[in-house]
Write a structure and sequence with these properties.
Blueprint: E1 7-12, H1 14-22, E2 36-38, H2 45-57, E3 61-67, H3 68-73, H4 75-80, E4 87-91, H5 104-117
Parallel strand pairs: 1-2, 1-3, 3-4
Keywords: Hydrogen ion transport, Ion transport, Transport
Subunit structure: V-ATPase is a heteromultimeric enzyme made up of two complexes: the ATP-hydrolytic V1 complex and the proton translocation V0 complex.
Family: Belongs to the V-ATPase F subunit family.
Length: 118
């Protein structure tokens, strides 16, 4: 696995995940677990949380892309995450525009820079 590098995982709506799969990011690990989750209207928050936590534990994942509106559903988990790998990036979806004020990385960077100024 080290020779291949790390994977990008995606948690998003159907359009977002399909776009990334068409771009070639779809993989199954040795346990036949995919590196993506399509969140539909009947997907529970527990399913999203469980998948996110599984992605955090996987050694083969270096980046987790998540639609920002889905990240809002599990914000309590994102806010408690402090590791840099896998990196978590919030991305817009077709139906939900990006809001920088809600972004996990930007909020975290703001607290780091404001702490240094004092």
């Amino acid at each position: 696995m080290a020779a291949r590098g790390k994977l990008i995982a995606v948690i998003g709506d159907e359009d977002t995940v399909t776009g990334f799969l068409l771009g070639g990011i779809g993989e199954l690990n040795k346990n036949r677990r995919p590196n993506f989750l399509v969140v539909e209207k009947d997907t529970t928050i527990n399913e999203i949380e469980d998948t996110f936590r599984q992605f955090l534990q996987r050694e083969d994942i270096g980046i987790i892309l998540i639609n920002q509106y889905i990240a809002e559903m599990i914000r309590h988990i994102l806010d408690s995450y402090t590791n840099s790998i896998p990196a978590i990036l919030e991305i817009p979806s077709k139906e939900h525009p990006y809001d920088a004020a809600k972004d996990y990385i930007i909020r975290r960077a703001r607290t780091m820079f404001t702490a240094e100024e004092h």
